[in-house]
Amino acid sequence: MTPLLTVNNLTYCKKVRPWLGKKEIFRLAPVSFELKAGETMAIMGENGSGKSLLAKLLVGVERPSGGNILLNGEALSHSNKQQRFRAIRMIFQHSKESLNPALTLGSLLEEPLILNTDLDAPSRKKKIELTLTQVGMLPEHQYFYRHMLSEGQRQRVAVARALILNPQIIVADEPFAALDPSVRSQTVNLLMKLQRDLGLGFIFISHNLGIVRHISDRILVLADGNVVESGKTDVIFNWPKSEYTQRLIQAYQALITRDD
């Protein structure tokens, strides 16, 4: 069976010259992996490891220096942004900042439909109401503004924006970092239900190894732009091969012991 997503030797190199400082170079070494429909791959690593950069490469925000990305066996062209924009959608970390306070939720959700589909106004309205219902909100919420929503509702709207174009893959970059534990648990359960119902593939980036262990099928570990380890979640947690991965997991286990 053809994988939903295939990443072949994806590389990135960018030179950065800090203000009045010497030139710095960040490289993402060749990254390769496959993602099946209904599967979740977690990307682990410390700050600066290249996790968020990899997410931007997948959704087309950044252009890779080499390699390619295939969706259902067909190459995704960087120049065909609409194709990628519809197929791979992103959930951002700070849902509040990603929502325009001057627009109703209906307007926020309608914009990508206007730009990327041929749906007429009644069909767009129907799609918005359906998507809001999918994420556990009411159709009437389309008339709300950002300030009228709770923290959990704002995160659900962020999920709705990712779903509105019927994507096949969702990239979630630290989507739970700013949420309190109860809201975080509700959002995790929501995403897992949507994945079961819609057969979505998930790329999940997080520092929270408890959530990573709970929702992911496989893990890719990055350090300084290099893949240091990859494999099934249970194998990575129980038998980590690299010292780097061992250190990450030991820190997580120490945190659990301290909280207990």
Structure characterization notes:
It is a single chain. Strand 7 (169-173), helix 6 and strand 8 (201-205) form a beta-alpha-beta unit. The protein has helices at 51-59, 81-87, 105-116, 121-134, 151-163, 181-198, 209-215, 233-238, 243-259; strands spanning 5-16, 24-35, 40-44, 66-71, 74-75, 88-91, 169-173, 201-205, 218-223, 226-232. It is globular and about 55 Å long. The chain contains nine helices and ten strands. It has a single domain, classed as P-loop containing nucleotide triphosphate hydrolases (Rossmann fold), CATH 3.40.50. It is an alpha/beta fold and 260 residues long.
Q: Topology of this protein?
A:
Layout: E1 5-16, E2 24-35, E3 40-44, H1 51-59, E4 66-71, E5 74-75, H2 81-87, E6 88-91, H3 105-116, H4 121-134, H5 151-163, E7 169-173, H6 181-198, E8 201-205, H7 209-215, E9 218-223, E10 226-232, H8 233-238, H9 243-259
Parallel strand pairs: 3-8, 3-9, 6-7, 7-8
Antiparallel strand pairs: 1-2, 1-4, 4-5, 9-10
Helix pairs in contact: 5-6
InterPro entries: AAA+_ATPase (IPR003593), ABC_transp_ATP-bind (IPR050319), ABC_transporter-like_ATP-bd (IPR003439), P-loop_NTPase (IPR027417)
Domain ABC transporter: 5-249
GO molecular function: ATP binding; ATP hydrolysis activity
